[in-house]
Amino acid sequence: MRFPARPESDARYERITLPNHGRLWSWTIQRFRPKTPPYAGLDEFEPYAVGYIELDGVLIVESRLTDVAFETLAIGMAMRLVPLLFAAADGLSSTTFAFAPAEGAAA
After folding, report:
1. Tens digit of pLDDT per residue, the chain (107 long)?
2. pTM listed for this prediction
3. CA 42 distance to own-chain centroid
């Protein structure tokens, strides 16, 4: 996946390739609907997991966690980057990123 990048002509930034996998560093469950704005999701709120993923010693990123039962989350769990469809309350949708357990993931 690519994030919006700065123009190629902007010498202040160096492009680096980040790993698409890592380990769950910490996590929590969002159990209530955030205020609008900035929350733009559907009115029918469902709890979701949010975590910090350590990308193999490069850096730690915050991300939504998907395709995982809350009770199976464990610090150190192997995770992989996946696309996630976000449906907004205005009827529009967009693709963002999330992390899901890697196949055979264990802490």
Report:
1. 455 566 667 777 777 788 999 999 999 999 887 777 766 666 777 899 999 999 988 899 999 999 999 999 999 999 999 998 877 767 777 888 899 999 876 55
2. 0.77
3. 18
